[in-house]
């Protein structure tokens, strides 16, 4: 129903915020990660929303990016994962980290979310594996998209190396979310190798 709400941030609660626009204060449920990233009270914000309508409830769930919203919408299609569970998962890992956890089969990382057990985490992986592409997983690891041939080829090569580095870190026992976060911090150079990425990423793991 609502694509987004843009207005003044009036209140930040533990699991929700109030955004005022047009003289109306909208109570929007958010993850703890989203709440932590919001500016101060009185600031103007733009919250992308998902509307849940039931016989006994009319609720709004908010996200700072369309990407987070789209991942949330995929999450709540999983049996046993309602909106509350979706927000819980996105409170402990980013959309990018969740994608890689699904691709890598890292149920332990997903099960860190409050109220999400091992079986439910496995179900998330099983149900979403075919709904999440490798391109989506790697897109957040690179810089701004560049449509030019040479730059696009370089970016593609960088993403392949980053994927291999993340897979190597997961094989070493690190969670997919931690590995993804560490690799994202690595600055790529023209002569960077997978080994270089691993060495730099490991510095961010401690």
For the record, the CATH architecture of the largest domain stands as Orthogonal Bundle
Q: How would you classify the helix and strand content by structural class?
A: alpha+beta
Order of helices and strands: EEEHEEHHHHHHHHH
Task: Work out the radius of gyration.
Answer: 18 Å
CATH topology of the largest domain: DNA polymerase, domain 1
Return the CATH class of the largest domain: Mainly Alpha
Helix content: 40-55%
How far apart lie the N and C ends? 44 Å
Please tell me about this protein's structure.
With 206 residues, the chain is α+β, with helices and mostly antiparallel strands. It has two domains: 4-64, Beta Barrel (OB fold (Dihydrolipoamide Acetyltransferase, E2P)), CATH 2.40.50.140; 67-203, 5' to 3' exonuclease, C-terminal subdomain (DNA polymerase, domain 1, Orthogonal Bundle), CATH 1.10.150.20. The chain has ten helices and five strands. It has a five-stranded mixed barrel. A hairpin with a 2-residue loop joins strand 4 and strand 5. The longest helix is centred in the last third of the chain and has 23 residues, at 149-171. The chain is globular, with a radius of gyration of 18 Å. Residues 143-150 have low confidence and may be disordered.
What is this structure's SSE topology?
Layout: E1 4-12, E2 16-21, E3 24-29, H1 32-37, E4 44-54, E5 57-63, H2 66-75, H3 83-92, H4 95-104, H5 107-110, H6 118-128, H7 134-139, H8 149-171, H9 176-184, H10 194-203
Helix pairs in contact: 2-3, 4-9, 8-9, 8-10, 9-10
């Amino acid at each position: 129903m609502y694509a987004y709400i843009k207005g003044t941030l009036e209140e930040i609660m533990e699991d929700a915020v109030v955004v005022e626009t047009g003289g109306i204060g909208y109570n929007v449920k958010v993850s703890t990660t989203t709440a932590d990233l919001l500016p101060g009270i009185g600031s103007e914000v733009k919250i992308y929303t998902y509307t849940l309508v039931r016989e006994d409830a009319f609720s709004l769930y908010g996200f700072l990016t369309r990407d987070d919203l789209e991942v949330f919408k995929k999450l709540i299609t999983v049996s046993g994962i309602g909106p509350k569970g979706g927000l819980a998962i996105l409170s402990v890992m980013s959309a990018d980290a969740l994608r890689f956890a699904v691709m890598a089969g890292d149920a332990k990382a997903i099960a860190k979310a409050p109220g999400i057990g091992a079986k439910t985490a496995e179900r998330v992986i099983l149900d979403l594996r075919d709904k999440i592409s490798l391109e989506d997983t790697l897109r957040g690891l690179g810089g701004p998209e560049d449509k030019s041939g040479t730059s696009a080829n370089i970016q593609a090569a960088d993403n392949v190396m980053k994927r291999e580095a993340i897979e190597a870190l997961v094989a070493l026992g690190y969670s997919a979310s931690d590995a993804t976060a560490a690799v994202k911090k690595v600055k790529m150079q023209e002569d960077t190798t997978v080994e270089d990425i691993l060495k730099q990423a490991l510095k961010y793991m401690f």
